[in-house]
Amino acid sequence: MNIVVCVKQVPATQKVDVDPKTGVLLRNGIDTKMNPFDLVAMEAAKKIAARTGAKIHALTMGPNSAIEVLKESFALGANEGWLLSDRRFAGADVLATAYSLAYAIRAIGNVDLIICGKQTTDGDTAQVGPEMAEVLGIPHISWALELEEIDEKGLTLRQDLTTKDAIVRIDYPCLITVEKSMYQPDLPSYRLYKAGKDLKIHTLTADDLTLIDHTRIGLNGSPTQVERIFAPSSNTDTQRLEGDIDNIADKLYTILKNTKLLKEEV
């Protein structure tokens, strides 16, 4: 059995600049860390592998520096690393990212289970995992809260449906995205980190992905574009209203109407 865990380097700070022309985050020269949700995905993979004997593949897309997040994955239990790296992938939105990662998973081959963190802290869209499943043509379950059962054919999970939880069954091959509360991730193992120095990291470029449509990757293959990014303005001006309740209500109504925050019905 083969498990792929998708991991990502994200900024370790909220002070990140944005390219004003492309709307893409400028990541050079900033500290990075593994996306917190991906730590949970790694822990889930480790729990499943302990029961099934599965091999864990860590997959990331990014520049050569993203090798560091794969090394961290080794310290968390991954057996093999895959780096999807090519300038043609740069600037990808969620759809182009999901499309590229799906073809990388096809290149890995014979994958039974894909585990993703629910979302990344630098995007927060929670769309890449489900979109990957659609590209691959496999079932998926998002917002997994708890692993109920594991067997040779599939998984039974408790899923968060916002207003209630559901117990759901899914067969391999499949994809799941996990909530932060699913597991408390273990600290990286120094023993596994040392052993990881001898583990293989495969690098894939766009040319290594059989039958991939190059018009659907990177910035040019991204249907969503950022038109404008700006820092939100802040205003701490306050005004104190005094008087009896009716008088305060009249004053508040006048303020809301004059600032056009309240539309008067005709």
Layout of helices and strands:
Layout: E1 2-6, E2 9-11, E3 32-34, H1 36-52, E4 55-61, H2 67-75, E5 80-84, H3 94-108, E6 113-117, H4 128-136, E7 140-150, E8 154-160, E9 165-171, E10 174-178, H5 190-196, E11 201-204, H6 245-258
Parallel strand pairs: 1-4, 1-6, 4-5, 5-11, 6-10, 7-10
Antiparallel strand pairs: 2-3, 7-8, 8-9
Helix pairs in contact: 2-5, 3-4
Explain how this protein is built.
The protein is α/β, with parallel strands linked by helices and 266 residues long. The chain has one domain (2-216): HUPs (Rossmann fold), CATH 3.40.50.620. 27% of the residues lie in helices and 23% in strands. The strands form 2 sheets. Strands 9-8-7-10-6-1-4-5-11 form a 9-stranded mixed sheet, with helices on both faces. A hairpin with a 3-residue loop joins β7 and β8. The longest helix is centred in the N-terminal third of the chain and has 17 residues, at 36-52. The relative contact order is 0.17.
